[in-house]
């Protein structure tokens, strides 16, 4: 009898598909968080494999800070349209106008303001589960996540009070008002994501590949010049050939100098990299506990 052996990517794929099907079986109103970034692109392909030829059992949800790269939003809208998926967009701007989110004078990043915006969307649509593309290798706080990450009725996360996940058994029981965040890509790495994109021949936004962009040097990294945070008189604007490794707000996403124009080039570059993926995110540099504090408050 011929045996069938799964390679590394196939094992990760089957694990993620199993988790997505568990979500469909256990929750009544799940949503899939889709930003158009590389991780959510992989997540969307896995959802296709888990449920096609049926329609996706979840709408796509995006929390738009208003400070996104235009290329990212264009890709997000196009991909949702191609799949015929329902795309729900809730904006930080609207949350501020409604008094749900309170900006702090001098605060540049809108990551904190995404929290009340997301929690309001969960309440509006009564989502009992939000599927995200976070991976444990990204950051210390995310390494503490389970596949099924419980949130209390205030949307808060307690890393010391998570449910055991023994033998791939997941406890999705919830009381009214509680919700679950589910992370099917938890065991994936940045390299796995790009190798899967290559294997599946998935399209990604153009900013992941090298391109010429005006940048300024801030906090030890190259940040893209933009109208929200224009260069100061002392800052030198340089036109560089760069790309992004991970995408956040346009004013906190660091660019890396690169000549990678294909997915194969990116894989080669990552293999030789000595800086972590989120090492180019200025919003993670405020303190070592920045991400964990945001997640405890309801961040995804």
Describe, in plain words, how this protein is organized in 3D.
This protein is an alpha/beta fold and 300 residues long. The chain has 2 domains: 8-193 and 289-297, 3-Layer(aba) Sandwich (Rossmann fold); 197-284, no CATH class. Helices cover 32% and strands 15% of the residues. The protein has helices at residues 8-26, 38-51, 70-83, 92-97, 111-125, 190-200, 263-272, 290-297, and strands at 30-33, 60-64, 87-91, 129-131, 148-151, 179-182, 211-218, 221-224, 238-243, 256-257. The strands form 2 sheets. Strands 3-2-1-4-6-5 form a 6-stranded mixed β-sheet, with helices on both faces. A 4-stranded antiparallel β-sheet has the order 8-7-9-10, with no helix packed on it. Helix 1 (8-26) packs across helix 2, helix 2 crosses helix 6 and helix 6 runs antiparallel to helix 7. It is globular and about 55 Å long. The termini are far apart. The mean pLDDT is 88.
């Amino acid at each position: 009898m011929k045996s069938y052996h799964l390679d590394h990517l196939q094992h990760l794929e089957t694990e993620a598909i199993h988790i997505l099907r568990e979500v469909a079986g256990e929750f009544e109103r799940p949503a899939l968080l889709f930003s158009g970034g590389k991780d959510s692109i992989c997540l969307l392909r896995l959802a296709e494999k888990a449920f096609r030829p049926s329609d996706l059992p979840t709408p796509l949800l995006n929390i738009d800070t208003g400070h996104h790269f235009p290329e990212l939003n264009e890709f997000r809208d196009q991909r949702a349209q191609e799949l015929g998926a329902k795309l729900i967009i809730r904006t930080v701007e609207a949350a501020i106008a409604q008094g749900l989110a309170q900006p702090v004078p001098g605060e540049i990043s809108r990551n904190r303001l995404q929290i009340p915006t997301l929690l309001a969307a969960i309440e509006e649509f009564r989502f009992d589960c939000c599927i995200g593309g976070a991976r444990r290798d990204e950051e210390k706080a995310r390494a503490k996540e389970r596949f099924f990450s419980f949130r209390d009725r205030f949307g808060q996360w307690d890393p010391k009070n998570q449910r055991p996940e023994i033998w791939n058994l997941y406890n999705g029981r919830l009381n009214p008002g509680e919700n679950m965040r589910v992370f099917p890509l938890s065991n994936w790495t940045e390299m796995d994501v790009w190798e899967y994109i290559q294997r599946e021949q998935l399209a990604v936004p153009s900013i992941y590949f090298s391109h010429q962009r005006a940048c300024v040097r801030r906090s030890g990294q190259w940040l893209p010049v933009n109208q929200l945070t224009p260069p100061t008189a002392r800052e030198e604007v340089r036109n560089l050939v760069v790309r992004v490794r991970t995408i956040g707000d346009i004013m906190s996403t660091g660019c890396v100098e690169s000549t990678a124009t294909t997915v194969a080039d990116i894989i080669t570059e990552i293999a030789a990299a000595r800086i972590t993926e989120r090492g180019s995110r200025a919003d993670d540099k405020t303190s070592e506990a920045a991400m964990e504090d945001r997640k405890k408050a309801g961040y995804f």
